[in-house]
Fold this protein.
Amino acid sequence: MSDFFPVLRVFGALVGFFSLGMLVPLVVSWTHADGLRHVWAISAGISFFCGFVVWGSLRRHRRELQARHGIFLVSFTWVLLPLFATLPMMWALDSIGRPVNFTHAYFESVSGLTTTGATVLAKLDELPVSINVWRTFLQWIGGMGILVLAVAILPLLGVGGSQLFKAEVAGPIKDSKITPRVKDTAKGLWGIYATFSTVCFLAYWAGGMTAMDAMMHMFTTVSLGGLSSHDSSFAHFGSPLLECVAVVFMLAASCNFALYFIALRKGHWRGFWRDPELRATLTALIGGGLLVALVLWAKGTYGLWDALRYGMFHAISVGSTTGYATVDYLAWPVFAPLFMLLLSGVATSAGSAGCGIKMVRVLILVKQARREMTRLVHPRAVQPVTLGGMVVDHRVIFSVLAFMLVYGVTTISLSMLLVLTDLDPVTAFSAVLASVNCTGPGLGSVGPAGNFSGLTDFQVWVCTFAMVLGRLEMLSFIALLTPSFWRK
Amino acid sequence: MKIIILGAGRIGESVAGTLVSERNDITVIDTDEARLRELEDRFELRGVVGSGIEPDVLVEAGARDADMLIACAAQDETNLVCCKVAYQMFGIPTRIARVRSNAYKEGSPLLGKEGFAVDCVICPEESLTRYIGKLVEYPEALQVREFADGLACLVSVRAVAGAPLVRHTIAELRECVPDADMRIVAIYRRFENEPDRFIFCEGQTLIEPGDEVFVLSAREHLQLVLSALHRYDPNDHREVERIMIAGGGRVGLRLARQLVETGRNYQIKILEPNHARCVQLASELPHDVLVLHGDGTDEDLLENEGIEKIDLFLSLTSDDEDNIMSSLLAKRLGATRVLALINRRSYADLMHGTQIDIALSPAQTMLGELLAYVRQGDVQAVHSLRRGVAEALEIVARGDRKTSRVVGRKISDIELPKGAQFGLVMRGLPDLGEGVIPAGETPPTPAKVIIARGDTVIESNDHVVIFVPRKRLVRDVEKLFRVSATFF
């Protein structure tokens, strides 16, 4: 166990650092005088104290982190950090007379941090504004990754930063170092993320939202989260202009942030548009939107203009794992919601704010399948799998295959587990898929019109587990559960 | 002329061999003493053992009064540095370097006087690839040589019984194929058990099946010329489509890339025995080029990959024996045409008249570029033919009727050495001899190609193409074109 003291030390620092995030709702609460000031202030104090004690007592265990430490720390963080986010959430809800149990509060925190956007709360419009800010702010931190942020700005994480970075940034090809120092990479990524956020905020504000709404929706748009401060989500505004803005930023956030970083450093965008994953992501999302619009129009659900508006918005919102909804799309021809849910599993790029399988893995799989087909005809053909002119290493291909297997097995077994608890199969399957892909709304009773509060506590825990698994890309989290990880 | 050649490899050897026979003083520098002694025995030259980048060695080789340095060692670096030293320390007027890297193309500032001071870059692989590319474009030709950037071409083609011109005399040429403007300059006839015999072309000369006919024509008539001599049915125009390349070395890779870049839909297969190289090829080439792991002499592989449907089989490995065997095998298994790279002269002679349609000597293809540099006067291009026995020259006629023995005279009045033939006159080409044309300005009249006849009058600045069947006559031809103030 002493092997993991350095990890705990870093975790302590992280908690202390995370507590600073509670200053955001504190400030909001102060300015809006919603009476929850003390909750945020004391919660921040407790978190900071806890973090400081852990960090301080393990001060002497400063050591270079290894790959397994990175895995451990990331999983540890994503499981335990929501606890500190849950504390003020439970307390605040309690003090306004709408108490929730621990299961639901924890689910809400995890759903926030993993950018899933599923909720168990109802009557959001009546909640104090600071609670909504906290929910959406969690998504914003989770979008780019809290460890990446920590690597970027915490000097004490200088040791082993690259392990943390690798463990948290999603995607199969991890060693694509953009800058010689991982700290600069992390800074660059967060810089771009922050820039997007600012522009998105201004666009929403100019498009007619109040400043508070603009901020909260910005938090959940650029992080592809999907929580809203209104029960009716984007329908509250009923503005095609705002929906357009949201579509643009959801598309932008579905692409690999490293690409923006590289393009900005090089000063030209040629390589950016030539990236195969970017092209595939944009094609899948925009093409998927057009397809859904076409289905809606052809089946007579809407006129041409409305079909385009609702089809594009929802396909891109769900496909990019965001999960905003303006209408109850379960009333649409069943193809559309199912297609959108499946799209959310594959459409986003590695290194974006989205979750799921990631487009790059799909591309590798498709190319690998094509290679096998060529091999049937030409047994001696040599056809390495390439992405953008680079040969994809065999190990990466195998890791992608392993990932797909684990993804499939996890999805099916968790769905079966839910079915075992007498949930109807459609709801069960879609709830797991929507959690693993960090999408948010599923089908059936967890669809855009309903929410997860109808599930039993056990079922909520299963979905919570699925969200963490999905955000951490399965393998590293599952590796933690194997005996060999703990063996010396 | 005093010439220093760096490197006694294949290229160095054939360059030395060619230049020695033109009465130049050759010194070869190489680190391999045994190899140098071998060359000294074969040719009349001097060998100096040592590194070409050492000034001492260059002094020993006579760099102080050398006229030209040809650096063709195996490494680009050695050649570049040698040229720099030759320029800076000894001021050798002409420096030619063999450079493989694409970054060091002619015109690059790296090659200027401030850089490596290279006057001319030769790349044998590049020349060879371009040369083979022509053969793919004109599959009926045995060789295609270009003059004035491809404005006119010299082709040699095997006369086939049943083609329009075959079994007719040269005088009947106009009646047989009225559309094709061409000039037959030489015929080599095949005889049993002895080398081909040169036949002087006059009006009464009969073209027989099996003759190797050398024809000059403008490029736009090339297709007609070839069909006049090689095709049974002018309507049966079959382009090369399926190409198999045995050997994915530098030449194979360059050729495949060049063929893909032409944009025609070639189906290309490359055979390469080295697996690592296969992977490299497959990742560098576009996906429609099929890279196969295997040997060109593997009968099963050839059959499985449909050798009987291959239009052109090219064996381009560096091993003569492999090339010969694989192309013979391919021919027997049904490939329409086969081409083999053969370095050794004795092998090339052995293969003469066998199933191999075209035997190419890699060194020969780039000698022309070099020879144009070595020759005095206004020689624009030299193509060494029939393994260096014959030559086609492009010479610029200068001066006027008073100072030149050719300008202002009819071709029938000019006395060429016996056997040599006027082929074409290209008029209106930009004058490169007297200053470069300002950029952006096109020559006033487009250059035209005139077929040389008895009554054609040569003007000043005409580029005249002359076929010389024996190399020793070249000096006389050059003398004829020399401008002399004392003439008359």
Notes: Chain B touches chain A through 16 residues (CB under 8 Å). Chain B has four domains: 2-122, 140-230, 242-364, 375-481. Residues 433-441 of chain B have pLDDT under 50 and may be disordered.
